[in-house]
Amino acid sequence: xxxxxxxxxxxxxxxxxxxxxxxxxxxxxxxxxxxxxxxxxxxxxxxxxxxxxxxxxxxxxxxxxxxxxxxxxxxxxxxxxxxxxxxxxxxxxxxxxxxxxxxxxxxxxxxxxxxxxxxxxxxxxxxxxxxxxxxxxxxxxxxxxxxxxxxxxxxxxxxxxxxxxxxxxxxxxxxxxxxxxxxxxxxxxxxxxxxxxxxxxxxxxxxxxxxxxxxxxxxxxxxxxxxxxxxxxxxxxxxxxxxxxxxxxxxxxxxxxxxxxxxxxxxxxxxxxxxxxxxxxxxxxxxxxxxxxxxxxxxxxxxxxxxxxxxxxxxxxxxxxxxxxxxxxxxxxxxxxxxxxxxxxxxxxxxxxxxxxxxxxxxxxxxxxxxxxxxxxxxxxxxxxxxxxxxxxxxxxxxxxxxxxxxxxxxxxxxxxxxxxxxxxxxxxxxxxxxxxxxxxxxxxxxxxxxxxxxxxxxxxxxxxxxxxxxxxxxxxxxxxxxxxxxxxxxxxxxxxxxxxxxxxxxxxxxxxxxxxxxxxxxxxxxxxxxxxxxxxxxxxxxxxxxxxxxxxxxxxxxxxxxxxxxxxxxxxxxxxxxxxxxxxxxxxxxxxxxxxxxxxxxxxxxxxxxxxxxxxxxxxxxxxxxxxxxxxxxxxxxxxxxxxxxxxxxxxxxxxxxxxxxxxxxxx
Length: 669
Fold this sequence. Notes:
Radius of gyration: 35 Å
Number of strands: 3
Distance between the termini: 32 Å
Shape: elongated
Strand order of the largest sheet: 1-3-2
Structural class: mainly alpha
Largest sheet: 3 strands, antiparallel
Oligomer: single chain
């Protein structure tokens, strides 16, 4: 008999005799011998004295108090990060909005109906990026709190407490790190979580951990949660975020237990051993470094992976779009809009300026830029500078935009009054001599207007019809005011037409068609085709859910927050819709990067299985939340609480069953 076979036989005999793997016995003997050597060589002067760490651990790691302390700690983290972070976003969003406006202002002007490709594409990318970056203040607070727990030594205690929790469900303390990295509380990433399972030598526990790690709340899911909470759960934001962030733990434990008694039943297990570091005050440098590193990782992901995926999704959201017949119908609607507002039939000296839709589109772009500049004006002198700038750009646009009213500043008052009086006097003399303009005297009037326009193009645009009134440093032109009224009506009709075309184009796109195809099924969960499209885009990368929603829910106001746009455009939605969507998002399958990592670490069978089962569980309970809540007339928060306690009950029941089975086996032995 070879030496290898002899060793295997000895291992089997030891296993049969002690009911414990031989590796465990060898490890225990090694540690026991090491302890005896240390005790024989060292003499501790403080033997028997309790350290501060021991005192704290007597409460924090207590069998009964430990879980309560952990629960309160996690709840406090959410209150500080979510509630406190939301207040900071009120100051952060205007900064992002300003950056977004600055980028939009350097792009080509929008068309009357169709925008240049470069404008449409860049705005799509910028809006998506800004929608995700809006939550950075919340992430910074969250990262800081997690770093404090890590640096203080409490994170190791969490692993210790969770080891006792995990054991009945086929996991152990070594599973804590992968789950934490993936977002055990919230804010991780499944990719490093799956890779961290390499340290788990127990194949059964390792596979179980890999298969439940994607259920954790990775950082990419948070923007969607926060968006829905901002719209539907503002009064209970902390509680809602706590529920959805911790329910995935109970779901993961339930799934892990079911896996351990089915497909992973015959795998061997090994004990969990870890070192408990002493408590110490967190270092500001360490905490700040980790916050900066993790925030930068998130920003880098936004600027790399998300940008690439967003570009791909842009294609799927816009092509093939509306067909040629529909395009022609939309073009015909432009003429209809012009006729509805009588722009082609009115007598107005400014009619030639607004003779076609392209020039009107330029006017709307001018109005947007001028309005934005005025909002940023610091004082009256700054406003005066802005007025002079936009007068020079296009004086006729300027007076029409200001509803026919122009403030004449002190610095120009003398020059303007001289021009105004001389022009009106000359015009009256011309009319007296030649009568009103007609075919015979057209060239005379043409030369007259050309001469006065050359003298001062800006003032000429203000007074050219000879029907302007000047009083108390204010010029009023009634014809410009009438034109302003007509253009406002055109703008309303134009925006409605643009939104209609955007929706038709979206419905005709590849993703739109797929979302519409799935709507007869997803409607039972409260999902319309728009939500289907955003959820489909999340399969590539979770961050794209919010950016896709930003593209879908357009109302023509770039500076408005996405939460407000959804609230305005989906007035029929309730908190039940949001609760179902949040729960489904919590269980959506891992992104492409995570699937590839799982396949690398555990094989494609496990990767495919891990991608499918969360969709099934998520959709079933999304339907349950929406349907039962609708029947019983319950709120979204009430249904989240019901589902939460259902999974808590199932988890506890499985834990009791596991402990009962273990004790029963021990009695037989």
